[in-house]
Amino acid sequence: VPARQGHNDRRRGGVPNGHQGRAAAPIRENCSAFSPNHLAIVGSRRHWAVVDRAPLLHFTRRRSAQRAITVLRHYRMSKQCTIGYPKAVFRYYLTNSAAPRGYRLRGEHCASFSPVLLRLVRTRRGHWMLAEGRRYLFRFRYNRRDAIKALNVIQKYTFNHSCYVGHGRHVMRYLLQR
Prior knowledge:
The chain is an alpha+beta fold. The chain contains three helices and twelve strands. The protein has helices spanning 7-11, 62-74, 144-157, and strands at 30-33, 40-44, 47-51, 55-59, 79-83, 90-94, 109-112, 118-122, 128-132, 135-139, 161-167, 170-176. The strands form four sheets. A three-stranded antiparallel sheet has the order 1-5-6. Strands 2-3-4 form a three-stranded antiparallel sheet, with helices on one face. Strands 7-11-12 form a three-stranded antiparallel sheet. It is globular and about 40 Å long.
């Protein structure tokens, strides 16, 4: 039974998750495979890239790039998927076409959430967000379609932890199932 929309949800543009009476359409995913065992760090000074055959991630600190490789290998991530074109607004990683899972790494920065409680919310400024209660977790600016697709992906893989490596603009965000 879907959660009821509260007064505050309607005022701020809340949209219940799920579509009653319709089967969910298959999600077209934009994913690129990589080998976690062949990852390397290239760069110097304030620009470091994690590469397989091509650049995968960018950081301003070598330590963040090394930590990203540790995370990718620990969870055996082998696909990087994006939502949004031409610029990705949402990224997630898969392990053999499934949600990454495993024991928590020491020092990992993660926040838990419930995929079934996520809902699409439109802010007063017209931005689309995925929220759990009053907590905004993911933002999509003005692109509602990308926000809906991200919600469907999160629920498909039952992701329930949002994590990150890095600082500032150059951050690797990843989702886990625990």
